[in-house]
Amino acid sequence: MRAVVLLFLLPTCYGSLYDLIYGTEQSVGVEGTLSCNKKPAAGVEVLLYDKRPALLDRSVDVLHSGKTDAFGNFKLGGTERVHTAKPQLRIQHGCNYKPKGGLCWKRKNVVIPSKYIVQGNRVKEYYDIGHLDLAKKKWDEGFAYCIPPPAWYTPRIPLLAQTVTT
């Protein structure tokens, strides 16, 4: 009888122990539309990532990355095995930015609310950031510094279409 009880308890304990050590699968998704000066921001790099606690590691886990389509739309979703997910959306763009002495990109991070994080490997509801015009003054904060271009950028490729000079 004890052996039968142990056979039923062992998988339950093992699953809980595994989740305790490696975390559980959590999924999150984000969508929205980007523009620059009221024109679609096509080709803007968007990145869905999970920021790790600073005490453990300063790196990030990329859940999904992509670019906006011709109309400035994007939709990203991803899954990761973690204890506590802290997902963010990173937007890298060149809207209304005139580089001085080289190519620079502006960056904005958007924290995704925890209510959009679900257990399991499928996104149930996407966090909609709505329509963001990257040229608006309210988006200037956080964009003021220069960062290296994304890894996919090479000098032979012309500057992205969303870069507007005024």
Automatic annotation (TrEMBL):
Keyword Disulfide bond: no
Primary location: secreted
Keywords: Secreted, Signal
GO cellular component, one term: cell surface
Subcellular location: Secreted
Residues of the signal peptide: 1-15
InterPro entries: Transthyretin-like, Transthyretin-like_sf
Gene3D superfamilies: 2.60.40.3330
Family the entry assigns: Belongs to the nematode transthyretin-like family.
Name used for this protein in its record: Transthyretin-like family protein
Species for this entry: Ancylostoma ceylanicum
Taxonomic path: Eukaryota, Metazoa, Ecdysozoa, Nematoda, Chromadorea
